[in-house]
From TrEMBL:
<keyword id="KW-0732">Signal</keyword>
<dbReference type="Pfam" id="PF01105">
    <property type="entry name" value="EMP24_GP25L"/>
</dbReference>
<feature type="transmembrane region" description="Helical">
    <location>
        <begin position="209"/>
        <end position="231"/>
    </location>
</feature>
<dbReference type="GO" id="GO:0005789">
    <property type="term" value="C:endoplasmic reticulum membrane"/>
</dbReference>
<feature type="domain" description="GOLD">
    <location>
        <begin position="53"/>
        <end position="138"/>
    </location>
</feature>
<comment type="similarity">
    <text>Belongs to the EMP24/GP25L family.</text>
</comment>
<keyword id="KW-1133">Transmembrane helix</keyword>
<feature type="signal peptide">
    <location>
        <begin position="1"/>
        <end position="21"/>
    </location>
</feature>
<keyword id="KW-0812">Transmembrane</keyword>
<keyword id="KW-0472">Membrane</keyword>
<dbReference type="InterPro" id="IPR015720">
    <property type="entry name" value="Emp24-like"/>
</dbReference>
<protein>
    <recommendedName>
        <fullName>GOLD domain-containing protein</fullName>
    </recommendedName>
</protein>
<keyword id="KW-0256">Endoplasmic reticulum</keyword>
<dbReference type="InterPro" id="IPR009038">
    <property type="entry name" value="GOLD_dom"/>
</dbReference>
Amino acid sequence: MLCRCPCLFLVVVLWVPVCGGLMTNPHPSISDQELFWGADQYDFSVVLPAFGLECFWHFAHRGERFYLNFMVQWVAGLGHDRHLSVTVNAPSGLLVSAVDDAKGQVDFEAEETGFYQMCFSNFHNHFGTMQVFLSFGVYYSDEDRDKSREEEKRKKEEVRRDLNNTLSVIEDATHKVQSYVFHMFRYYSSGRMRKSADYFLLLSNSQYISWWSTALSLLIVTSGYLQLLFLKRLFISKTGTEQEKPRC
């Protein structure tokens, strides 16, 4: 009995760390389609049903600029409301930003490294479905880019003092062009969102006018028929002699 107890104790000690190890997957219950692993920019549309809720996660490093642009393109259903509730949470669970509007923009500097949660709720519409255009991603601000360039330049000067600065000039020009193209693409996405929203709003107004015109036309025809029927019943006609004429 004295020999079996130490063996049993060693088995328990060795088995507990294996079963109680740390999870390396940040969100084991979430599919890869809802996790975005740090690309510069994403641009797509999503349809939210009545009382619908959609959440997405995007990876960002500390010091990066996280941005989110959204716009409601169209709303269908009874008693529809174009307001959309948007919340952005940090990897630790803290609320970073909250917007409740038909369109908006969220831009902040990431203070934590991890997956930032973006949730879009359609709780304003009890019987309405909406389509939302999303554009989000990460980028470096000008100050952070300047700091990183200065550090790179110092390292290059220490390692390669005798080389000229032609490569650094080309690299700086490339970064500037890349930054300008990136911001131009953001402005283009915003313009496309506004254009698509105006187009869907025009279609909605056209359908609304057509339905009301049809309803008013039927109302006018029905009221005319009822008036004619009412006037006709005011006159009492009897079939008799020629002297007896219809009287009111």
